[in-house]
Amino acid sequence: MTNPKEFQQLIPPHGGYQTLQSYQMAEIVYDATVVFCNRFIDRRSRTHDQMVQAARSGKQNIAEGSMASGTSKKFELKLIGVARASLEELLLDFQDYLRQKGLPLWGKEHPKAKEVRALCYRKDRSYMTYKAYVEASPPEIAANTLICVIHQANYLLDQQLRALEKEFLKEGGFTERLYRTRSQMRKSGK
């Protein structure tokens, strides 16, 4: 009979996505996108639905990848990549919105862009941190704010992907852990 400690080594702790900065930023993106789309895009349009779904996909795939990480690092990597791709799609939708409406896209040095980016470093950041920019501002400010927040979320996802790739290359996945554990058990005569 295997002891519980050996089983814990085989399936490491997983989940805890609520504490990931990437998940927290993706949740802000989702909440803000829903508000933006309800304010500025016809609810019956395909664009409305696609933007909300892309934002949701970003958030949900981070959560699902985190939950799958205990038994499949490969699947976790894939889902975090899907989350990153979904947010990139959403980024393009907001850039398209500005272009099609003839509204300016803020550069990195735009004073408002710097102001929004600085909010990312608050420890207690949530949708409420950005609420005024999304709910009480004209479409130019709301869309550019979301573009800034999506860039921040994408940066965090890129960092997470690099760390996961490095860990996967060093430690392997579930199959490798299973093989190592079984080999150790055989050597110890259990």
Describe the structure concisely for a colleague:
By secondary structure, the chain is mainly alpha-helical.
Task: Characterise the protein shown here.
By secondary structure, the protein is mostly helical. The chain has one domain. The protein contains eight helices and no strands. Helix 2 packs parallel to helix 6, helix 2 packs antiparallel against helix 7 and helix 4 runs antiparallel to helix 7. The longest helix is centred in the last third of the chain and has 33 residues. The radius of gyration is 20 Å and the shape is elongated. About 3% of the residues have low confidence.
Question: Which key features would you list for this structure?
Answer:
190 residues; mainly alpha; elongated
- Count of helical segments? 8
Integer count of domains: 1
Span from first to last CA?
A: 8 Å
The largest sheet, given as strand count, sense and whether it forms a barrel, is: none
Runs with pLDDT <50, length 5+? 4-8
SSE order and pairing:
Blueprint: H1 4-10, H2 21-40, H3 46-68, H4 73-101, H5 111-119, H6 127-135, H7 139-171, H8 174-188
Helix pairs in contact: 2-3, 2-6, 2-7, 3-4, 4-7, 5-7, 6-7
